[in-house]
């Protein structure tokens, strides 16, 4: 309750991202309500945004603001000026407070701060370099009136502000001037401060002088910054100067005086200066958005509603609504006062004349915002909120928005960039999607500065200030470069390379969908009876706590018994190919050819025949992670005899299935198989080469197929594209996934038949990496017919051997590792073209997961495929990539390894609680079929295309409860 009134919420939790869109929507887009309605129509906002899907909420929005939108940065006098006693300036309450040992963290003071008092020209230069349209700063009352009264005018202080204002105007930067940003002259505190009604006249006298002196150039005035903080933190909790600890009464008395002082100054400007100066004037509260923990719970709604009204409505209701406090405040405080046997309410009462005088005393709506909170009825205590009502859709200016980072130096401030990237996007949504009359946005802050009780620890600045250097040099941070780009673009326009491309893939392009043996087609085996037929995944999934929810693949989707149903789904998708894997232990239970399980082979023969009958070509993976347990018991991939075992297994499949299978994959994602140790990757590479040579020398001439390996690869971008260390880390990340030995790389087969040069980390451990003999290198070299690629997402890298990170603005998925980043797909395909001399590429997996409640209208997945397939089209059409085929992951929801059935990648939902394991199509199934039917994306400008019309197939499930739901 004290915390949300502390200045800047000292270290804003960067994960508590507020949505600016709900705040500004709240201010202007609700029905006009009487002030007494409780709970208010703030619940309309909560209902609007809580009913959004995650996809609607999180999708990044591109666009620009109106032409006259004003971009700026903000600061305040005590935080940046320094010169606390220079040239006749009088002391303020913050000067005296910071000089008391123990009051400020690390003993910091604002005596010098950023020394802006002596650096006007430098600061104006930096503002001009940013490209801002305005600069919001505050006037130090005691620098202009050292005693707080107009009988002590300090010409040096006036000269300082004149030089600053003139410098801004000369550079076409609009000054936004705050008259009071917490630094009351000590002389006025000595007569009672804001508890004294005498300050109404004294503040008006100061403001009048400022209008007269600076108003010919200043056209935007703010009376008070965050008046709630002045009243509560200064006079209630007593955490800030003047440290009055009287939470029961003083904040209400102070707020009463602040509102009357604000109104007086507004009328002074309106009566004496507006006609000649033509400016605007308002006050600037802080608004942290709140959400009810449970939007459907009336108690949580009312609690969040009260919270907002005590925080925001306290000052905005009198000015923007009816000249009076919110009814819930009057009732709540009055009721508590009565229970305390007080003669009157602790909340003062405005007269009718005062209400008329206060109402409407703001030309625009300004506010500061940093974070958001979740509110429940059990946590609001006695400081809640009330009715949020329409304020007539006033022009809105966001005056402060930013993030503090506790660090000594943060020139490479990636976190701050993420913050602005997401918050400004929410402001854009508010303007574009919600119709908010948003006129301006100011970042907090222009530079690192004195952050009140926390001194110089948290850094909010776009420019770093070296406070250890007497000259206080400023250094632009990377966020300054980013913000300057936002300003230059007037928002976040869609990058040219991200524009959608209409067109078709080559006529012979392959369209496919994938599964894997263990994930979909396990029969109902038990460990005891079929121990000799188990794979390592059978054993692993039966080990307690290894798989989410203790799921296993024992039944999975039971594709072993559902060939007909699966083929019908494939036909409905209109795929030309189907990628699946062979279970090694189903065909060779002990991993060797000593015993061949004919029933297992017969299953695959029946599946392949059914596919061919449906004109669907099989793409067969020999090994998709499910090693026979019998081979693992003798060392698995660490035992070099497995190379021969794999060759024998491959030969059996070539012999029995090769006349019908024309596309073979030796290993799926060997990086995940061989992650450690290096010897595993060494053996995988040799096993792949032996299988390739076997097919090439013995079976290719007769069977005419293709054989290669498929790797998984994320794309990697440097977190800071201007930092060489980050660039090197991205390059290494890409290289490791493609051709480090642990990844069974592309390089040995595609380039030179040897292992790549080691990165810096590996070089520290020589001897771990096995060496190929010269003859082995020659045997490995060129063992590919195509480049097989699984791809899902993109990461950001920084420093070599550091974990990769992601951009918070990227759309999430049901998998923590998978961010929706279609741009990386095209870049990766182009990189493969350039790195490996444009080999034929087949994308063998690409898809997205979802978690939580099932939604057959899986917009998220349709968006993913639309975006990623379009990036593949750009790679073909614009970049000349030799992409031959695309495979979606996956046909149906299945067993997703360590996460069990929690993550759903499928076009078809499988009801795992249904003994029949029925399949039900999602909307994405029809969408993918449409892409295939059109062989890409027909241009809507040419009119409706016949390929967009898909005929329904199958029988309605309502008429046949035993059928598989394949109707689209």
UniProtKB/TrEMBL annotation:
Quaternary data: Homodimer.
PANTHER family: GLYCOSYL HYDROLASE, LP05116P
Keyword annotations of the record: Glycoprotein, Glycosidase, Hydrolase
A GO BP annotation: carbohydrate metabolic process
Enzyme class: hydrolase
Lineage, opening ranks: Eukaryota, Metazoa, Chordata, Craniata, Vertebrata
GO function terms (MF aspect): hydrolase activity, hydrolyzing O-glycosyl compounds
One Pfam family this sequence matches: Glyco_hydro_1
UniProt family annotation: Belongs to the glycosyl hydrolase 1 family.
Coiled-coil portions: none
EC assignment: 3.2.1.21
Protein name per UniProt: beta-glucosidase
Catalytic residue list: 400 (nucleophile), 845 (nucleophile)
Species whose genome carries this gene: Bubo bubo (Eurasian eagle-owl)
């Amino acid at each position: 309750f004290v915390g949300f009134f502390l200045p800047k919420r000292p270290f804003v939790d960067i994960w508590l991202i507020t949505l600016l869109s709900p705040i500004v929507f709240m201010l202007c887009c609700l029905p006009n309500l009487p002030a007494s309605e409780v709970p208010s129509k703030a619940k309309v906002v909560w209902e609007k945004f809580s009913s959004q899907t995650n996809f609607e909420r999180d999708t990044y929005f591109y666009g620009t603001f109106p032409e006259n939108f004003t971009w700026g940065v903000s600061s305040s006098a005590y935080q940046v000026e320094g010169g606390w006693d220079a040239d006749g300036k009088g002391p303020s309450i913050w000067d005296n407070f910071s000089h008391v040992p123990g009051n400020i963290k690390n003993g910091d003071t604002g005596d010098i701060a950023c020394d802006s008092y002596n650096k006007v020209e430098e600061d104006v230069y930096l503002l001009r370099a940013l490209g801002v349209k305005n600069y919001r700063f505050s006037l130090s009352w005691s620098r202009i009136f050292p005693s707080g009264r107009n009988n002590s005018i300090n010409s040096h202080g006036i000269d300082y502000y004149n030089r600053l204002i003139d410098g801004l105007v000369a550079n076409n930067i609009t000054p936004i001037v705050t008259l009071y940003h917490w630094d009351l002259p000590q002389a006025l505190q000595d007569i009672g401060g804001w508890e004294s009604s005498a300050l109404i006249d004294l503040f008006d006298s100061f403001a009048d002088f400022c209008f007269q002196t600076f108003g010919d150039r200043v056209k935007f005035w703010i009376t008070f910054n965050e008046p709630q903080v002045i009243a509560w933190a200064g006079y209630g909790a007593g955490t800030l100067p003047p440290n009055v600890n009287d939470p029961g009464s003083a904040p209400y008395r102070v707020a009463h005086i602040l509102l009357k002082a604000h109104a007086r100054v507004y009328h002074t400007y309106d009566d004496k200066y507006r006609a000649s100066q033509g400016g605007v004037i308002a006050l600037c509260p802080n608004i942290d958005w709140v959400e009810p923990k449970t939007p459907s719970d009336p108690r949580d709604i009312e609690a969040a509603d009260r919270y907002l009204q005590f925080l925001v409505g306290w000052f905005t209701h009198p000015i923007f609504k009816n000249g009076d406090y919110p009814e819930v405040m009057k009732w709540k405080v009055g009721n508590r006062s009565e229970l305390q046997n007080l003669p009157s309410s602790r909340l003062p009462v405005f007269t009718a004349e005062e209400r008329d005088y206060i109402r409407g005393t703001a030309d625009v709506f300004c506010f500061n915002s940093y974070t958001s909170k979740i509110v429940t009825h059990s946590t609001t205590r006695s400081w809640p909120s009330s009715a949020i009502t329409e304020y007539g859709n006033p022009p809105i200016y966001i005056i402060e928005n930013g993030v503090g980072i506790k660090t000594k130096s943060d020139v490479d401030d990636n976190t701050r960039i993420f913050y602005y990237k997401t918050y400004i996007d929410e402001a854009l949504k508010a303007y574009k999607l919600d119709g908010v009359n948003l006129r301006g946005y100011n970042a907090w802050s222009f530079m690192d500065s004195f952050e009140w009780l926390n001194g110089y620890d948290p850094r909010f600045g776009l420019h770093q200030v070296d406070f250890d250097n007497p000259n206080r040099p400023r250094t632009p941070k990377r966020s300054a470069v980013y913000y300057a780009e936002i300003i230059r673009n007037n928002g976040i326009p869609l990058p040219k390379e991200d524009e959608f491309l209409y067109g078709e893939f080559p006529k012979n392009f392959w369209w496919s969908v994938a599964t894997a043996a263990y994930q979909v087609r396990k029969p109902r085996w038990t460990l005891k009876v079929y121990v000799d037929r188990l794979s390592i995944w059978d054993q692993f999934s039966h080990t307690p706590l290894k798989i989410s929810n203790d799921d296993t693949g024992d039944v999975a989707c039971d594709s072993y018994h559902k060939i007909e149903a699966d083929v019908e789904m494939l036909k409905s998708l209109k795929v030309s190919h189907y990628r699946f894997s062979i279970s090694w232990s189903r065909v060779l239970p002990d991993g060797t050819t000593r015993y061949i399980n004919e029933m297992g082979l017969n299953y695959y023969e029946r599946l392949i025949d059914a596919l061919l009958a449906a004109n669907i070509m099989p793409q067969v993976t020999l090994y998709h992670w499910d090693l026979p347990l019998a081979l693992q018991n003798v060392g698995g991939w660490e035992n070099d005899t497995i190379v021969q075992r794999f060759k024998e297994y491959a030969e059996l499949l070539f012999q029995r299935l090769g006349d019908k299978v024309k596309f073979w994959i030796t290993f799926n994602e060997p990086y995940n198989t061989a992650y450690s140790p290096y010897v595993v990757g060494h053996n995988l590479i040799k096993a792949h080469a032996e299988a390739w040579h076997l097919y090439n020398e013995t079976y290719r001439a007769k069977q005419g197929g293709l054989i290669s390996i498929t790797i998984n690869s994320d794309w990697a971008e440097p977190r800071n594209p201007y930092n060489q260390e980050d660039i090197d880390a991205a390059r290494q990340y890409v290289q490791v996934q493609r051709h480090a030995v642990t990844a069974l790389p592309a390089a040995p087969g595609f380039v030179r038949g040897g292992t790549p040069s080691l990165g810096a980390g590996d070089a520290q451990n020589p001897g771990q990496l096995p060496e190929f003999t010269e003859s082995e290198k020659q045997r490995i070299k060129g063992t590919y017919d195509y480049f097989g690629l699984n791809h899902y997402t993109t990461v950001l890298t920084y420093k070599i051997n550091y974990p990769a990170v992601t951009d918070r603005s990227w759309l999430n998925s049901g998998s923590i590792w998978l961010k929706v980043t279609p741009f990386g797909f095209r870049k990766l395909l182009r990189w493969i073209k350039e790195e490996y001399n444009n080999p034929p590429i087949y994308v063998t997996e690409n898809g997205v997961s979802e978690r939580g409640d099932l939604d057959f209208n899986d917009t998220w997945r349709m968006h993913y495929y639309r975006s990623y397939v379009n990036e593949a089209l750009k790679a073909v059409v614009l970049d000349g990539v030799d992409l031959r085929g695309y495979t979606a992951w996956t046909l149906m929801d299945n067993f997703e390894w360590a996460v069990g059935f929690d993550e759903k990648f499928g076009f078809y939902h499988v009801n795992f609680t249904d003994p029949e394991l029925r399949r039900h199509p999602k909307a994405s199934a029809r969408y993918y079929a449409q892409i295939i039917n059109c062989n890409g994306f027909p241009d809507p400008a040419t009119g409706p295309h016949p390929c967009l019309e898909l005929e329904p197939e199958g029988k309605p499930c309502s008429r046949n409860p035993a059928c598989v739901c394949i109707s689209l």
